[in-house]
């Protein structure tokens, strides 16, 4: 079992979207470079991990694959907690999966405390001859909701690595920048610690002590 000493940052990414859009195959393609054409619907929640290195820092990536069926919504909502990123996935050949993005996006916002980095993913690019969702529609939705956007194919690997890597890199940069600022603040506290004790004494009190009583 991994311990926190084995990595510098833990990044949790959730995959959300309707059942059958290819979330599980995106996960397995990225983590194990595998694709199962007969993959079944996820029951509840599954997750996989992957280790990466960025700027001499060790990252542990947890990718949570949430079930898309309505009956599992109550179970999976708890797993949004602590997510630092999300892939909001739809099937470019099924317009209903695109129409349902609004509900998924709202659910994500309701169940996450911090602002997770979100990428909109139009999956099954290999079937673009059967496309029902135009690329401009995906771009428009992403711009309106301030999301990253990409189209992928878990089947032939198109843009899968790029999608995850972009999300992970942006999350890492944000976390690393925040940690650097915290370290700088702590260093200032240590440096100014002794003088800080003197600053707490009001000038009037120092003057009274030096003159003595009466």
TrEMBL record:
Membrane topology reported for the UniProt record: Lipid-anchor
InterPro entries assigned to the protein according to its UniProt record, in alphabetical order: P-loop_NTPase, Rab_GTPases_membrane_traffic, Small_GTP-bd, Small_GTPase
A Gene Ontology term for the protein's cellular component: endomembrane system
Subcellular location: Endomembrane system
One GO MF term attached to the UniProt entry: GTPase activity
Any Pfam family the entry gives: Ras
Main location (coarse class): membrane
SUPFAM superfamilies membership: P-loop containing nucleoside triphosphate hydrolases (SSF52540)
Keywords for the protein's UniProt record, in alphabetical order: GTP-binding, Lipoprotein, Membrane, Nucleotide-binding, Prenylation
Membership in a protein family: Belongs to the small GTPase superfamily. Rab family.
Protein name: Ras-related protein raba1f-like
Natural source organism: Anaeramoeba flamelloides
């Amino acid at each position: 079992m991994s311990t926190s000493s084995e990595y510098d940052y833990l990044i949790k990414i959730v995959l959300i979207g309707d059942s059958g859009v290819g979330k599980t195959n995106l996960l397995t393609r990225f983590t194990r470079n595998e694709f199962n054409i007969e993959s079944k619907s996820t029951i509840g929640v599954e997750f996989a991990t992957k280790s990466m290195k960025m700027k001499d820092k060790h990252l542990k990536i947890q990718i949570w694959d949430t079930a898309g069926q309505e009956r599992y919504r109550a179970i999976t909502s708890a797993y949004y907690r602590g997510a630092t990123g999300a892939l909001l996935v739809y099937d470019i050949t099924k317009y209903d999966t695109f129409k349902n993005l609004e509900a998924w996006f709202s659910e994500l916002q309701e169940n996450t405390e911090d602002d997770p980095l979100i990428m909109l993913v139009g999956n099954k690019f290999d079937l673009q001859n059967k496309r029902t969702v135009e690329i401009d529609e995906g771009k428009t939705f992403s711009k309106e909701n301030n999301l990253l956007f990409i189209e992928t194919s878990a089947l032939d690997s198109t843009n899968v690595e790029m999608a995850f890597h972009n999300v992970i890199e942006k999350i890492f940069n944000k976390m690393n920048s925040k940690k650097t600022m915290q370290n700088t603040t702590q260093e200032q506290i240590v440096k100014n610690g002794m003088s800080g004790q003197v600053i707490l004494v009001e000038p009037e009190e120092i003057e009274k002590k030096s003159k003595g009583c009466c």
